[in-house]
Amino acid sequence: MPRSRSAVSAFDPDLTSLPAVAHRLDFADHEAEVPMHAHRKGQLILTLHGAVTCTAGSQIWIVPPNCGVWIPGGVPHSARATENARLNYLFVEPAAASLPADCCTLWISPLIRELIDRLARERADYRPDSHAARLARVVLDELAEMPLEHFNLPVSGDPKIRAMADALTIEPSDRATLGEWAKRVAMSERSLTRLMVRETGLTFGRWRQQLHLLVALRDLAGGATVQNVAAELGYESVNAFITMFKKAVGSTPAQYFAQRKAPLKT
């Protein structure tokens, strides 16, 4: 069946003032692109299967296994999901929980994951004295204790950095040097070097490696093989890609997904 509906139209979290409501979304039924939008409630995005990449707060965020991306209320955001993506959203009323004031990636315990999944089966207009209300309270209390992870790419509002991020997201195998990028965006290499560090806090090499990591996590979770991801990112060999991945996250792709009980194609 063709995917014709935008995910934004599937559920409006601001129709209720309850502290927390959950909603499951299957992207087999919706367009992969979620346009820029915002809502009063904060939003936690969890993947059950596949992967989703979010843009929010001048950052690009990936939602890897056993983590969730937290977007505070009022922050404009957009997303792109893999075709096999199934997600759980948790929408949180402002001030209902002690959650970060900025966008971030949170580690999500198996308990929280299961509780949110259970809450997603409840009506969005549950009574304040119901079992669903008690579930929501436990979820919010537990969520406030979760540690931060670092699966984001700073892109800033600068149009030149944004253009580089957009181009490399579309064609991540592009191995152009910083000098070549400087010519493309009509700057000197020295000026682009300073701009990159000032706007993102990273050197160009570290920034591109982080982008490669996000693309790799997204595509591996979406069902791509390690060999195909290595080729997509322009690595000369699978071993070179695995070395980059292990240096970035502390384990090989197979180990990373096994630790999170997520299947990985080899």
TrEMBL record:
Keyword annotations: Activator, DNA-binding, Transcription, Transcription regulation
InterPro entries: AraC-bd, Homeodomain-like_sf, HTH_AraC, RmlC-like_jellyroll, RmlC_Cupin_sf, Tscrpt_reg_AraC-type_HTH
The HTH araC/xylS-type domain, residue ranges: 162-259
The name this protein goes by in its record: AraC family transcriptional regulator
Species, as recorded: Steroidobacter flavus
